């Protein structure tokens, strides 16, 4: 009645087979991640060896995305790692914009980083640092230089122009008001 249902030797063999399969899958994922990140880093002019070191490869993604490498430490702290994943997504989105890709690739980077790195690293798109950069709105008067003012209204400030700086008088007399005309007498 107290006989074991499973032979201990068989259980040990099954456990060893499962462990061997897990090791092969983990080694395959490590090699895939290393190759994918190495290719991505090569295309972004970063050092390829960083792709093979765990957490250093993620820190390099943060750096290439214009963020601090120290954000990788947030991924190690429970609950705070959600903010770290958000920051990783932001860094990945910044890298995606270099390749002309959208937000969907950033979501892919958060959930499956090796696949994201493979798609960017082996794609035909070349990284363009100017891609996705928005043009600044025109600044009034900055596009065309304005000729110097002449005539009776030359002393009046132009709209949007800063008033002239007050004149420094070392004798202690107050500077004239910038809007007062030269030689005008203030009202009494």
Automatic annotation (TrEMBL):
<feature type="compositionally biased region" description="Pro residues">
    <location>
        <begin position="160"/>
        <end position="177"/>
    </location>
</feature>
<feature type="compositionally biased region" description="Low complexity">
    <location>
        <begin position="178"/>
        <end position="188"/>
    </location>
</feature>
<protein>
    <recommendedName>
        <fullName>Signal peptidase I</fullName>
    </recommendedName>
</protein>
<keyword id="KW-0812">Transmembrane</keyword>
<feature type="compositionally biased region" description="Pro residues">
    <location>
        <begin position="137"/>
        <end position="150"/>
    </location>
</feature>
<feature type="transmembrane region" description="Helical">
    <location>
        <begin position="12"/>
        <end position="37"/>
    </location>
</feature>
<dbReference type="Pfam" id="PF18936">
    <property type="entry name" value="DUF5684"/>
</dbReference>
<keyword id="KW-0472">Membrane</keyword>
<keyword id="KW-1133">Transmembrane helix</keyword>
<dbReference type="InterPro" id="IPR043739">
    <property type="entry name" value="DUF5684"/>
</dbReference>
<feature type="transmembrane region" description="Helical">
    <location>
        <begin position="71"/>
        <end position="91"/>
    </location>
</feature>
<feature type="transmembrane region" description="Helical">
    <location>
        <begin position="103"/>
        <end position="122"/>
    </location>
</feature>
<feature type="region of interest" description="Disordered">
    <location>
        <begin position="130"/>
        <end position="188"/>
    </location>
</feature>
